[in-house]
Structures are given as structure tokens and as C-alpha cells.
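FORM 7B: Structural annotation worksheet

SECTION A. Query
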Amino acid sequence: MKILPSDSVVGEVNLSGDKSISHRAAIFSALSVGETIIDNFSTSEDCTSTLECLSEMGVRVERNGNQVLVNGVGKAGLKKPSKPLDCGNSGTTMRLLAGVLAGQAFESELFGDESLSKRPMERIAKPLREMGAQIETRDGIPPIKITGKNPLRAINYSLPVASAQLKSAILLAGLNADGVTIVFDPPSKAAVSSSRNHTELMFSYLGAAITEKVTETNGEFLYEVTIDANSELTAKNIRVPSDISSSAFFVVAASILPGSDVKLKSVGLNPTRAAFIDELNKCGAKIGIENVRTQNNEKIADIHIYYSEELIARTEPVIFSGEVIANILDEIPVLAILGTQMNGGMEVRDAGELRVKESDRISAVVENLKRMNAVVEEFEDGFRVGRSHLTGASVDSFGDHRIAMAFAIAALAANGETEIIDADCVNVSFPDFFDVIGRLTTRDPE
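SECTION B. Predicted structure
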């Protein structure tokens, strides 16, 4: 994929449905009693993997574009699959289904593509073993072989890191346990969940007996969530908000290209996901939030972004570190591009988790920025970028959708043409990404 620089980005966009919520909508609907219509379901390959896995376990799934009909079988009604379940590139599919399958009374196996097969899974396996399921990994990575048990043992479990996928896997297993399961987030300085809470919100929407509580001790907050195994999920139609992680690419593009004016419609603004918007506005970005409302327990709004001279002219370096990292992790690759355009630059620390995503995102960001003549320094847990005059170059996606999209935004701000190797990997999360970019970009006639 070859991309030319752009003078600005201008227009209005309806983005595809949120990936995280689409995964949960499909899985929770399958475990519900009744029929569910899911509107604005994500067009990503990752979420298609989740639907295909559910179909393999006897769930009737019908899809028409971005609308999906799921005929739920109840929380213990899945059937033993006739073959290993292919999760593709989707860590969310694998980790959430591991929690579901731990509580089903049959054997199953989850596997993925080359990238997913390198990602750590023991963090998921440990609590599921404590609950009574037999879990085998290949030296801590996929495939995952699961011998489920029903009922499982209810447990109290403290997460070693803030991880929505780990928390969700335990809560899903807790649906088929013998009592009340409690999950604790790591202590935090904020009185909210330090990991995404889409699972809690959707469980509540579908009628599960789930409770959230925050307690304070010595200036630190401890968030806990409880699921009662007596819960039954009742099918209710779900409309998925537009994906806020996908919005980040257009937020950055509009913020750095003079004359830009972009509106993103009906975006999910869950507080555990919108941290990057709050952080950028603190630094001088011009990101407006309009038409705020609630849908299926999720906060949604329109996001209006303008070019911000104040953000670009900021001389103090922006430093992202500590607790905020868990809630901006997906956005860090494209935030690095923003850092190259700011007078004070940007530094990211405490983000070592990026090294075990679809690629080593720290290494990928640094290498590609160097190819584009950026001022950049790599650390074990992050990087530092300085104000740079980017030059078009051949950059590598490393098979990682977020790296490909981040460097498409870099290409818009660069001098000369940029080629992105293996750009098709964007299909994992955002198949029409380059079409949307093409509609928004403006160039003066030569």
C-alpha cells in the first residue's frame, strides 16, 4: 500500500462497531436464553473468528453485513466442537472462550495463526486451573487444550496486571461455578476499574447478578467485581457503538494536519477506553464531545476533532506512564506519530506489555520511525520521540494491524510517498480503513 502526504483530513465518518464489545456481544448472546439481534457488529476478521467458533459449538449464527442474529443456548448449552477452534489472530476470542469452555463439560482446543501462537496464555490458564478445569498450553503459548468441568469452583482472584481479557475469562467461568466468584483489579489511584469494564456492563444489561465495589485504603483504591453462578443471561438486542480504538487514528491525523475538521459518529466513550482523548485534551488538543447518550449501558457520543496549533506548539514533552498506560495501550502506536509532530515530543514508559501484542509494538514503532528519519530512542518498556520532519519510506507492518494504521497516519504527515508492507493486515480490525482515509484526505492540486 502506497500513501501520499495530505494537506488535511476533512469529513464525517461512521466507523465500524467496537471490536471489544462485538466479541462480548456475540459470546454473551450465545450464553443467553433467547434470540439476540446485534447491530453494527464489527467487520473485523477478529470478530468473525468469534462467530465461527460459536457456530462450531452449536450456536445458530446468521449474519447480514454488520447485523448478526444469535440464537442463544444458555450458559451451559454449548456442544463439544468436532475439531479444534480456530481463533485466527484474535487474542480476545481465545482468552474469553477459554473462560467459557472451562465451565463446559467437554474437551476442546483453541488455536490461532502464527502471531497468536506466540502470545502468552498462562496468565489465563492459572485461575481457570484453580477453578477446577484442566488447561494445557505449549510452554505457556497456544494451542490451549481444555477439559472443562461443571460446576467449577468459585474463587477469589487478584489480577497480577490490569487485564480486561483475564478478568472477563474468570467472570465467564464464574457463570458455571458453584457459588460467587470475585475478581480484584490491581490497586489504583483512581476510584474506577483499571481495566476495561465492557464485560461488567454487558453482564448487567443482560440480567446477570453482578456487582462492582470500590474500597479505599491508604489513598489507594481496590476495585472488585462479583459474579453469582445463579445468574442467567436473558437475550436482549444490542447495538454496538463505533470503535474508539479505531477513532484514535483519525483523532491524531486531524490533530496534526493544518485545516483538519473531522467528526466521528456514535463512538463508544467508555471511561476505561476514552483515556487517550482526556490526555490529549489536557495537552491542548481540540477534541469536542457532542450528543452524549447511553446505549446498552455504554456511554456513546460524537467526537469532533480540529487541527490544534496549541498541541503542536507545546514545548513540554508529553509523558505517558503508570496507571494510564493500561487504558491507552492500543492507542500508543499512533500516539507515537503524534509525538513526532509536537515541539516537545513524547515519552512512553511502563508499556512493556506492548512487546507481547500482535507484534513487538515497541520495536516495530521505533524501527519504522527510524526509517522515516524520526528522532527516536527505544527503552525496554517504551520509547521517546522528538520533533521530527518525517520522510516517506518503506515501512513494515510486521503483520500487525495497529502498526500498519499508525504508519498510514505518519505517511499523511511525511514528505514524499510511503509504502506500507503487508498493509492487508488491517483487515484484522478495520477492513475499510484505507477507504476511509482516502475519503477524508485533501490535497492541493499540483
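SECTION C. Observations
The longest strand covers residues 286-295. The chain has a mean pLDDT of 96.

SECTION D. Sign-off
Analyst initials: ____
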